[in-house]
Hints:
Blueprint: E1 11-20, E2 26-30, E3 45-50, E4 53-58, H1 61-74, E5 80-88, E6 94-100, H2 108-119, E7 125-129, E8 131-132, E9 135-136, H3 165-176, E10 181-185, H4 193-198, H5 225-241, E11 246-248, H6 259-274, E12 279-283, E13 297-300, H7 310-319, E14 324-326, H8 329-332, H9 355-359, E15 375-382, H10 390-397, H11 400-409, H12 417-434
Parallel strand pairs: 2-4, 6-7, 6-15, 7-10, 11-12, 12-13, 13-14, 14-15
Antiparallel strand pairs: 1-5, 3-4, 3-5, 8-9
Amino acid sequence: MGVNVVPQPVSVIEREGSSRADALDVSVHGGLPSSASGSAHPEGYTLDVAPDGIRIEAADDAGAFYARQTLAQLTDAEGRVPHVHIDDFPRFAYRGAMLDVARHFFPVAAVKRYLDDIALLKLNHLHLHLTDDQGWRLQLDSWPELTGIGASTQVGGGGGGFYTADDYREIVEYAASRFITIVPEFDMPGHTNAAIAAYPELGDAPAEPYEGIEVGFSSLAIRSERTYEFVADALRELAALTPGPYLHLGGDESLATTDEDFQYFIARATAIGAATGKTLIGWHEMGRSRELPPGTIGQYWSYTTPQEGAAEHTLSFVEQGGRVILSPADAIYLDHKYDESTELGLEWANGPTGIRDSYEWEPADVVPGLAEHDILGIEAPMWTETLSTIDQVETMAFPRLASAAELAWSPRAPRVFAEFEPRLAAFTGYLDRLGVGHA
Length: 439
């Protein structure tokens, strides 16, 4: 039958023969403290399929869940599974996807469907981009018009939408059942037109609800104390709703904010965020500040060859005691066109991003001076300026999300697309059987 699994396991021993999966008993056991076994690593597992049964050993419940994801991929359309022994564990602790629910709003059911999708690939974080110029998507008791006026629009019109606190809790709980941590983002001080439209005192000038896709024109009123009351209230409520360890504060494309004001805002806003007890994440521009709370994580979104300043700003997080999540736009921005014929998507990051482009890069080689241990993980963002349905999201995500998952999970090795291709073909066949859309 062959062993075609994405992401590629650490070790695979193939044996002769196969069995019907539904005819084999499955036993699950706690991990053994052996340095030769995947089950000794956090989120790791061993999977043994033999004629007399299937045995899973896992370090934790997440490892057992991932073993079952591997087993599901191994099982063919006829229900047969090859006899095999697999030792497996992840390269990086943070393996993520991002869904932009601000440009277009996606209801709870759609977010749950995307959680199901990313769980297939052993991804363990979903970053929700909850606010932008086009909409504020999480209800806050302290500032109710954020989801009154601020949630009334989206790109292209047609209304917007928002999550109540109970909606958000439902998403968080559903994610946790799949060993996925929700990472919420309130983007600031730029990308804030929706907030200013709801509360004009948050800006230096009033704003109207916005349905376009241009960026960089909005900014909070940096020197107003009212702004920091808003930041404190918003982050306090967000932290209380979020059991996971992270809050994302954005910080990107603040083109309408002077450098002096940006530095002032980031120092104050991150101090407020850190006071919630959460670990903060910011896009790499936030690394312009040298007053970040220790341990703040930078998210790199420049190219696989860094643009001017991107490497310096990214390394700033490490120099201040933090680590880095890699999201190079020209490799794993999933909203980018596959090629010139792709109907949906954008192409500003060095043109279309083919499947080969999404696979043939090495995380540790992107930012000069960034060591392997400085990398927390990899995240594949899905921006939604051109995407309004979950079917469209799946078509743009798959199969390129599989590339990101393999880079995040599998050991460092030369990435040869010809070797990846047959496993990817098997994976898209698996998606077909599940009814998951792909390009």
